[in-house]
Amino acid sequence: MLKLYRQLIDLVGDSLLPDDITKVKQYIRQAIAQNGYRKDLYGLDILTRNLNTAWIVADEIGLKRSAVLAVMLYQVVFEEHCTLADVERDFGNDTANVIHGLIKTHELYGKNASVNNEHFRTLLISFAEDVRVILIMIAERLYLMRMAKFISEDDHRLQIAAEASYLYAPLSHKLGLYKIKSELEDLSLKFRDRETFDFIKSKLNETKRSRDKYIAEFIAPVETKLHTLGLNFDIKGRTKSIHSIHNKLLKQKTEFENIYDLFAIRIILDTPLDREKAECWQVYSVVTDMYQPNPKRMKDWLSVPKSNGYESLHTTVMGPEGRWVEVQIRTKRMDEIAEKGLAAHWKYKGLKGESGLDDWLNNVREVLEHKDSSPNELIDDFKMDLYDDEIFVFTPKGDLFKLPKNATVLDFAFAIHTKIGSRCTSAKINGKNVSIKHKLQSGDQVDIQTSPNQTPKQDWLNIVVTAKARVKIKQSLKEQAAKQVELAKELLHRRFKNRKIDEEESKLMRLIKKMGYKTVTDFYADIARDHLDVNTVIDHYLEQEKKEQALAEHPDRSAENFNAASPNESLSNKEDVLVIDKNLTGIDYSLAKCCNPIYGDDIFGFVSSQGIKIHRLNCPNAPEMFKRFGYRIVKAQWAGKSGANYPVTLKVVGHDDIGIVTNITSVISKENGMMLRSINIDSQDGLFSGTLTVMLSDTSVMDGLIKKIKAVKGVKQVSRY
């Protein structure tokens, strides 16, 4: 710990004031003396965690005095060993502000270990107030992921990995922390699906020698040519992350051996600022003269950098043996920004134009201000702005706007101003009229056409892709609906009056519920949309009133006197096979059809509209669920066995022989308590490929069956489907 502390001071010493170190020591010693550094929720030492987080903040992100001091001191303030006013007095307002943001986020985690629905907005607001809060939280999450193997509780490890995948990795991506983003994704995959992680890792190790040989062959002629041009450069091959390879396997639905773009070549130039673009394009010319480029896969982030400050020139060329190879060309300055993101960009901000991150943070704040959106909608809207690649579009006056890929005319109109978006009817691109649905391309010059009579429509939500546009459209639709509801309410009350019927609020509420409406607003909205006739409602009201009067006169006929068997009594003998979340039993759940978990599988619960679905941790849909809906994930584990059998589908590949299927089915029939449910065989070119669905009790039985089928003569491969 002392060694780490000294290294940290050496790293940020030039940004510290003369008495900063002495004061920090005093605060920490005081907190230690008062038992202020206990173990955290995950059983890790808090002081060690803070020192390591501060190291990542300084070394891997590049932040200096205020951020590092804030990481060192926020626990002291959080545990009330000193106040924010004390910190402001001794270290300045900037450090105190960062600590304030950190305390808000850590209070949030104190209330609930998981970022769930009701707290997600608060977390994002804290992030949006000061971008350094995001960077520090990312650094802390990276340290937790690195230490996850030492965390004893499985559910804590799963929760940390889930949040790393669906929140912190995309945040890192948006802020240009590509190295950290890749590490978070890889570690998250490691703890969520260890089998897949180890498989890809072992395959990469197996192919390393041949891959290194290929990279050396590709680089050699390029290196020679660049030396003759007198350029200063570094050139290397970079293997893609395990997570990105896993995504390719899922997306392309192919085997590992069929993926060729496992690496990229990076050429980093050491050149003055005024020569950067010229030399990058010079290198591009050398590479594309030697190897045939793919024009569809050329990306120019030199001319117009990404919003997070990322600058680079990417091209994909046909290398030796007819293999496509991605080549990235950038300078040392650009590479530092790509590795350290925001902090490095600030370092060069005086030299380069505005990063666009302020615009993004303002957009986040604007989304958060719309408090009526549901947590699910909020997360979806927020993620849209995090993930999408960018296009660059111009106004008729030449103003540049950055929008996500697949943005439409309507997105662009809302990006200019909410009023323009709300009144947008069409646009002109290069003098040609296009509809509001038209998808924009980089370089388009767009002239928005408006009408004072135009208002947002429900189907506009299917057209736009930006969070700002979605939020503003929803806001407008809700305002319109509120007006319509008031008009419908007045209409109903007036008809009651015209028909001289005394309207009772309680009776009307009972009728609305009986008609199947979840909310009163939905009921009035249907009247406003003419989906429900007012006179029909009043007729139902009168009919209900008669029935209620009849029941009052004959109480013995009331359904309230019927005694049903208690559901608890009927379920008392049922044995729980699963324990959901924090030792909860007796909860309704179902096994997901996409992965068919069985007793003994590593599993998790997913809260869906149909109740809790149980999935395997290595379910093909798990990465997407953790990424997009991590707040719906709950811990699940197997408890007592119920004696039930579960369907398992096995994929079998072998030599095409009429007797082989008989031998396999014979193996299954000899197993006690096992039943063959279905078999499907397809043969081609002397090989057969088949799927068997077998009913069995648990993973140990399944593993035993797989071993026995593998032993059948002619069988080449058996795997769970």
Question: What does it look like?
Answer:
The protein has 721 residues and is an alpha+beta fold. 51% of the residues lie in helices and 16% in strands. It has 6 domains: 2-192, Hypothetical protein af1432, CATH 1.10.3210; 203-347, Beta Polymerase, domain 2; 357-473, Ubiquitin-like (UB roll) (Roll), CATH 3.10.20; 475-555, no CATH class; 576-638, no CATH class; 646-720, ACT domain (Alpha-Beta Plaits), CATH 3.30.70.260. It has 28 helices and 20 strands. Strand 14 and strand 15 (611-616) form a beta hairpin. The longest helix is centred in the last third of the chain and has 32 residues, at 467-498. Residues 111-118, 350-355 and 556-575 have low confidence and may be disordered.
Question: Notable features of this structure?
Answer:
6 domains; Hypothetical protein af1432; Ubiquitin-like (UB roll); alpha+beta; 5-stranded mixed beta sheet; 16% strand
SSE map:
Layout: H1 2-12, H2 20-33, H3 46-61, H4 65-78, H5 84-91, H6 93-111, H7 117-129, H8 131-146, H9 154-174, H10 178-192, H11 194-206, H12 208-228, E1 233-239, H13 242-252, E2 263-269, H14 276-290, E3 292-293, E4 299-300, E5 313-318, E6 324-331, H15 332-340, H16 342-347, H17 357-369, H18 375-387, E7 390-394, E8 400-404, H19 409-416, H20 418-422, E9 424-429, E10 432-434, E11 446-450, H21 467-498, H22 505-514, H23 520-528, H24 534-553, H25 567-570, E12 578-580, E13 589-591, E14 603-608, E15 611-616, H26 622-629, E16 633-638, E17 646-655, H27 658-669, E18 675-684, E19 687-696, H28 699-710, E20 715-720
Parallel strand pairs: 2-6, 13-15
Antiparallel strand pairs: 1-2, 3-5, 4-5, 5-6, 7-8, 9-10, 9-11, 12-16, 14-15, 14-16, 17-19, 17-20, 18-19
